[in-house]
Amino acid sequence: MTAAIDRAAPDDALIVTDTGHFHGIAASFIGPARARHFEVQAEFGAIAQGFGMAIGAALAAPERKVLFLSGDAGLMQGLQDLDTIGRFTPNVLTVVYNDESLGAEFHKLGAKGLVREKADYPSPDFAAIAPLLGVRGSRARSIEDIEQQVAAFLEGGGPALIGARISRRVVSRQYREEIMPQLAKHK
Ligand SMILES: Cc1ncc(C[n+]2csc(CCOP(=O)(O)OP(=O)(O)O)c2C)c(N)n1
Ligand SMILES: [Mg+2]
Fold this sequence. Notes:
alpha/beta
């Protein structure tokens, strides 16, 4: 999915990810040519902080497209910022990596041998919420959907949001090789 977004994005697109399990996957599949135009919100690490970074980037460079990649919990944490996007930043496309979970916690609980399903929750239909806040919404269930919907944003303008369902079974390399083995030592 991230590779499809990367392929579809214009060369000068600004790409911002929020933090969460998903950002390890997102960061792995954004091509190296974008190094100067790609921000991972991980230093401070508060979920939903990426909204402010995406909005700031969009206002600073209104002639460029901003692709904001978020988890579903981060999206809920910063939902009021989607209203700001709806009002002020037509150049922002928000893509929600929706695993219906606080995925970072899901995978960490699992590594510790605890009940990882405690981190799950039935997240709302983001594509249905977005239009209430002035943001065009669509649902993606395949790579083809992603390609079409990113293209529609680039052609038709925005702001827009893609609610993409992803599987909890796909674990990022960062979690598989670093974070989960470390936690497993303290079971
Ligand atoms: C304000 C804040 N609260 C809690 C956390 C701990 N935390 C880090 S990632 C994460 C889950 C984020 O879930 P989501 O946005 O759905 O992304 P996912 O991990 O599922 O990919 C949480 C709760 C945090 N970093 N910041
Ligand atoms: Mg999630």
